[in-house]
Amino acid sequence: MPRWRRISLLYVAILFGGIALIAFALQPSGPRPEEIPLSEIINASQANQIEELVVEGEWLTATTKDGRELRSYKGEVSIFEIEGLVLDDVEYDIRPAGLNWGNIILSFLPLLLLGGLIFFLFFRARGANTQAMSFGRSRARLFPGDKPSVTFDDVAGVDEAKQELSEVVEFLKSREKFQDVGARIPRGILLVGPPGTGKTLLARAIAGEAGVPYFSISGSEFVEMFVGVGASRVRDLFDQAKRNTPCIIFIDEIDAVGRHRGAGLGGSHDEREQTLNQILTEMDGFDTNTNVIVLAATNRPDILDPALLRPGRFDRRVVLDLPDVAGRVAILQVHCKGKPLAEEVKLDVLAKETVGFSGADLANLVNEAAILAARRNEKTIHMPDFEESIDRVIAGPERKSRRISDKEKEITAYHEAGHALVAWILPNADPPHKISIVARGMALGYAKHLTEDRYLWTPSQFNDLIAGFLAGHTAEQLIFNEASTGAQDDIRRATSLARRMVTDFGMSDKLGLRTFGERQEMVFLGREISEQKDYSDRVALEIDREVDRIIRNAHKVATKVLTENKAKLIHLAQTLIAKETLDGEVLEAVLKGPVPPEAEAQVPVAATTPVAEEKPKPQKKRRVKKAPVVGPILPEPSSGSV
């Protein structure tokens, strides 16, 4: 039940309770006189049985000599005019008629209820009108600048972005320095980056460093079900900002209202487009002396309207990418500040294990490690706590309750040992850091590698990576002469990477330096909806053959490596079965150490010979009839973008 209904019912209950209480309090106390016909009082007076008479309005009350009280209605007739009433030796008292408040209140009760209903409806109508009028008010939250909660010291891993945004802080503090040389600070700054990279935190840090008020609002808070509300809220937000100058306006997730115009479901009359038009108008209407800087954040700059990104509105674009190794170390230091860490904790090792983690992921990682330490009743956070928290973030919590058979446990051990051994031997693969057969999430086991930050990839690195993907499947085939369904995700990743090598990166000597397939996306949805096939069926067949060739060669490499090191594979898998988890120095010692004789005895002599690569069968050449040349092939017109 809504809150206003509960309050209304409470008011009604209090009203009825008060009326009942008043009516009960005004009732005469004691026993009520017996009501009899007037004739009986006349007969009692003639029999000399009445001692006292009391006249109160139209009622006559008689007290007999034996103590009884008799009450009768006499009307408007005076007692002296009542025929047969004997008043000799009888004391009588004539009183004015009293008011019966209980009857009066009960008589006016319908009017009271009607008045209360009218007041309630008026109050609700006025509240609804007030709420309707407040729809156009901005929902932005104001953070005062005199008490900064976040500064640049709280933001790590984005040194270039902080350096670029320090100019904004300096302008807000000393505007005259820039105006003397004719410089104009950018009116709008767009923060671009994946989720969790610290866009909102960096915007608050700018306001904290400059010591100015900070208005924060999300792009979705502009749009309501009523037409024109978004534009009204934009006007109110900028009016408040101008009254609190100098200040900062931060619009988070601006792509909620800043998408390409004309891409909405409502055409040019879409409410989001009206809101965007008002934002563009307000940013154009800034005076050069107005110290209001607009910050906006998005992770989809490709779907924003071009008018929003032109100079004069969002002049500058600051990119916040995922942090590198040094950035991750700095972020871990910020979040570990004030937490009791053990001496063996190495943040640089944790940074190498968390490639692809954002700042929010690293904050969650440190918090999970602290929770694990507290759960174990420890006073400090140790390195195993961080290792466990990384596994929880990547693969999920351990599922020790899952019961698997010894056969499945053995298959999983050889599968993960194959991944680790191939990655250890191949020169362009990332070295293994941890392998485990403890179930996590939906996986029965997993292998974790120390990955470097790479921005460029070569075909040899891709080939070794695909060989590492297929190593688990290959190890199962080599030991058990058949493979299980556990390699499903590995095969999918290998196939996807091999296809991208051919269609996106031009890493096929046969097909040349071309990309195949033009992906189309709907701006309103912000995702791909189809892929235009800009190549023939013959080229599609060649693409499939090249993908198949890459995967087959990678499978041969993995087979050769595991066949030549089968004894090492058996030793690694048996050790993993015994300990369930191998990581760090323990895993390195098993990979580098000698193979025990019992593992060597399980390898037949024929298994150590390399597997010969299959040569592709020669294909018959097909005679293709050449099409007549119609004319020169002209290049496509340029779209004008750089």
Descriptive account of the structure:
The protein is of the alpha/beta class and 642 residues long. The protein is 46% helix and 12% strand. The chain has helices at residues 3-25, 38-46, 101-133, 159-173, 175-179, 199-210, 229-243, 271-284, 306-309, 325-336, 347-353, 359-375, 383-395, 406-425, 459-480, 488-503, 537-564, 566-579, 584-592, 597-601; strands at residues 34-35, 50-56, 59-64, 69-73, 91-95, 141-143, 188-192, 214-218, 247-252, 292-298, 314-319, 432-436, 446-449, 518-522, 527-532, 581-583. It is built from 20 helices and 16 strands. The radius of gyration is 44 Å and the shape is elongated. The protein folds into 4 domains: 27-99, Signal recognition particle alu RNA binding heterodimer, srp9/1; 141-319, Rossmann fold (3-Layer(aba) Sandwich), CATH 3.40.50; 325-394, Orthogonal Bundle (Helicase, Ruva Protein, domain 3), CATH 1.10.8; 406-608, Methane Monooxygenase Hydroxylase, Chain G, domain 1 (Up-down Bundle), CATH 1.20.58. The protein starts with a helix and ends in a 41-residue tail after the last helix. The strands form 4 sheets. It has a 6-stranded mixed beta sheet. Strands 1-4-3-2-5 form a 5-stranded mixed beta sheet, with helices on one face. A 3-stranded antiparallel beta sheet has the order 13-12-16.
What are the defining features of this structure?
642 residues; alpha/beta; Signal recognition particle alu RNA binding heterodimer, srp9/1; Rossmann fold; Helicase, Ruva Protein, domain 3; 4 domains; 6-stranded mixed β-sheet; elongated; disordered C terminus
